[in-house]
Amino acid sequence: MSKSLSLRKGLSSDRAFRLVVASVLAVVVIFFLILVISMASFTNWTTFWSSLVSGETLFAIRLSVITASISTILGMLIAVPVAYAVSQFTFPGKDIVDSLLDLPIILSPVALGAALLIFFNTPVGGFINNNILRFTFSVPGIVAAQVTVVTALAIRLLKSTFDGIDPRYEQVARTLGCNKPKAFFKITLPLARNGLIAATILTWARAVGEFGAAVMLAGATPMKTETLPISIYLAMSSADVDRAIAVIFILIIIALVALLLMRKLTHRSYPL
Predict the structure, then answer these.
(1) In whole angstroms, what is the distance from residue 105 CA to residue 84 CA?
(2) What does pTM read for this prediction?
(3) Structural domain of residue 22, as residue ranges?
(4) How many domains in the chain?
(5) What does each of the 272 residues of the chain score in pLDDT, given as a tens digit?
(6) Cα–Cα 20 to 30 A to 249, which of 22, 99, 162, 255?
(7) Distance CA 83, CA 151 (A)
């Protein structure tokens, strides 16, 4: 009798737990749907379509895609060796280094953009900006801001991937005649395929959506440094709500396509 009562209580607790979890999930999903529906109901669709194909919006799409692609390539070239080193190597101050690498994730992008702007006003940064490549209030500044923000995300994703790879695979490869670089490229990178794909796609999508650091360093000049997020800012500043909503929908579509593509290619769900 006591065992039967305990079993019923256990089943009741399980149902209550599932109900609470499902309710929270439903609330979150409904909340995001309400946001999308509210924008759709607020939109003048005639103006929406004209804003969607306007020269300024197309410029913002093109600039966002180009800068995000360049930033992703640069960010991944940095993130792969850094994430591997932090994951697989042991060295003094590793916890401090690991924490520093997370700063761009924790800090406000506006603060990072301001820090970059200040750097390019120092003697070293000023020399780079004035004699090598101009970053302040120009397109390269968008790339610099995006790389600064998204590289930390790529490092964190890739570190988790490398953490899950048993180092004995490389050790076995070494015993079979592979040197360290060959073992890394032949063994570790193929095993990290899903993580690399996920990090690349998420890094690109995050770069497309970067605003705070980019606007601080590159400014918000129409048809010059106008990425999609900056286009929303400029549209709202001029009370052009229809164009702002059109650009928001573009960003939503880009984000959804990126996430679905990531899940399709990796057959897994990776957290942002």
Answers:
(1) 19
(2) 0.86
(3) 1-42
(4) 2
(5) 555 656 565 567 778 888 899 999 999 999 999 988 888 887 777 787 888 888 899 999 999 999 999 999 999 999 999 999 998 888 888 889 988 998 998 999 999 999 999 999 999 999 999 999 999 999 999 999 999 999 999 999 999 999 888 888 887 777 777 788 888 888 888 889 999 999 999 999 999 999 999 999 999 999 999 999 999 999 999 988 888 999 999 999 999 999 898 888 877 544 44
(6) 22
(7) 10
